[in-house]
């Protein structure tokens, strides 16, 4: 399997694992969004909590070239270490939400 397809499989597996978690309160649904044609992968939350509407991204990743770009990571512990543990090379992960000067992954 080539590197891009390998990374694509890992990203989908990690996002799917997070979609199986349930929030500790509220009536919130977690939906995976996988667009392989553009290599965009997301985990969305929608629902209600304490009388207020909840909606938005929890995770948003892009595959570009042979890099995994984390555009948004709203997971408390972060997903970077999960991606690395599954086989994505640390040097192939870019944290887009961190300035380029600070973009170093802390293991």
From TrEMBL:
InterPro entries: XisI (IPR014968), XisI-like_sf (IPR035943). Gene3D superfamilies: XisI-like. This is XisI protein. It comes from Anabaena azotica FACHB-119.
